[in-house]
Design a protein that fits this description.
By secondary structure, the protein is mostly beta strands. It has no helices and 11 strands.
């Protein structure tokens, strides 16, 4: 059984920063990439960023470029999302997604709220 545990969400003021973590555990093999998605109230889930597991290449949604940075630690099966210059439009539940050679998995999500 595979588990994805997200952490690092919370309440932050506009202009602030947060660092999210997603740790994969269990019988997980052949990770191809890990990604972050988010879903704001009343909106569809949208892509935020992804990173290839072998090469560490990062990909971002246009609105996140320059503000968010995705990274990973292969030894810990963990991906990170550093979020800077946060604004209220970034308020959402952030979900971790892992794609392996045989399947895909989702975490339970972590709430990020940007408010003064």
């Amino acid at each position: 059984q595979v588990q994805l545990v997200e952490s690092g969400g919370g309440l932050v003021q506009p202009g602030g920063s947060l660092r999210l973590s997603c740790a994969a555990s269990g019988r997980i093999f052949g990770i191809k990439n890990m990604a972050w998605y988010r879903q704001a109230p009343g909106k569809e889930r949208e892509f935020v960023a992804a990173i290839t597991w072998s090469g560490g290449n990062g990909y971002y949604a246009d609105s996140m470029k320059g503000r968010f940075t995705i990274s990973r630690d292969n030894t810990k099966n963990t991906a990170y999302l550093q979020m800077n210059s946060l604004n209220p439009e970034d308020t959402a539940i952030y979900y971790c997604n892992v794609v392996t050679i045989s399947s895909a998995y989702w975490g339970q999500g972590t709430q990020v709220t940007v408010s003064s």
